Amino acid sequence: MALAVTDIVLLLGTGLLAGVINVLAGGGSNLTLPALMVLGMPADVANATNRVGVFLQSLVAVRGFRQYGKLASGDLVAILAPMLIGGAVGAASASVLPNWLLKPLLLGAMIAMALVILIRPAVIAPPPGTAALPVGGRPGAVAALFAAGFYGGFVQAGVGFILLAALAGSLRYDLVRANALKMLCTAVFTAVALVVFIARDQIAWVPGLVLAAGNMVGAYVAVKVAIGISQQTLKWFLLVMTVAVSLAALFTGH
């Protein structure tokens, strides 16, 4: 697929902004999916192509958080296993079912998260010094992680919020460490999704890699921002992005 200069600028700029948003909160795919569809891609191809950038930005973010010592490693197998299974089931479903099936779920989850941040912020942003809980020590954690993996494998847009609800809200990681784990989880289930989409030949590689270049730069910048800002500031950024994604889910068709 040949790209005009304006297409390249659109994809790089959108990818950079989405990379920042995805690392600090979530919902960047609400920018990148429309950008890909502007190029004439059908929704299923745009959904698949978008995963190239999501995967590569996740690797950049994970490496950055690990360098700063913010990537928790004590419970990774228990966290990643249900994600991996959920991602595989979600990606397989996405290849044959329309994306609108999960739109009400996304909207409901976003509204619920916005209300939680406003009314009971400690649920999603634990106080400093709060000890993280093991997956086995929190009822429903496995189901929440599987659901997040399934949703991410299915449609991707907004999955960061669902992951944060599971990691910060359920397992009590602070927002910086929750974001680091969120990006690792995203890399895992997106890798599974990519295998499915590649097998079905649904990825447009040229625009996907251009978009990914912007995603990766945005992720690099966002890690440095996340390390330097306060938990309180990150919480309010999360609230703003939650509201924005709720509006996008309400008024757009993807």
TrEMBL record:
<feature type="transmembrane region" description="Helical">
    <location>
        <begin position="180"/>
        <end position="199"/>
    </location>
</feature>
<dbReference type="InterPro" id="IPR052017">
    <property type="entry name" value="TSUP"/>
</dbReference>
<dbReference type="GO" id="GO:0005886">
    <property type="term" value="C:plasma membrane"/>
</dbReference>
<keyword id="KW-0472">Membrane</keyword>
<keyword id="KW-0813">Transport</keyword>
<keyword id="KW-1133">Transmembrane helix</keyword>
<keyword id="KW-1003">Cell membrane</keyword>
<comment type="similarity">
    <text>Belongs to the 4-toluene sulfonate uptake permease (TSUP) (TC 2.A.102) family.</text>
</comment>
<feature type="transmembrane region" description="Helical">
    <location>
        <begin position="205"/>
        <end position="227"/>
    </location>
</feature>
<dbReference type="InterPro" id="IPR002781">
    <property type="entry name" value="TM_pro_TauE-like"/>
</dbReference>
<protein>
    <recommendedName>
        <fullName>Probable membrane transporter protein</fullName>
    </recommendedName>
</protein>
<feature type="transmembrane region" description="Helical">
    <location>
        <begin position="143"/>
        <end position="168"/>
    </location>
</feature>
<feature type="transmembrane region" description="Helical">
    <location>
        <begin position="234"/>
        <end position="253"/>
    </location>
</feature>
<feature type="transmembrane region" description="Helical">
    <location>
        <begin position="76"/>
        <end position="97"/>
    </location>
</feature>
<keyword id="KW-0812">Transmembrane</keyword>
<feature type="transmembrane region" description="Helical">
    <location>
        <begin position="104"/>
        <end position="123"/>
    </location>
</feature>
<dbReference type="Pfam" id="PF01925">
    <property type="entry name" value="TauE"/>
</dbReference>
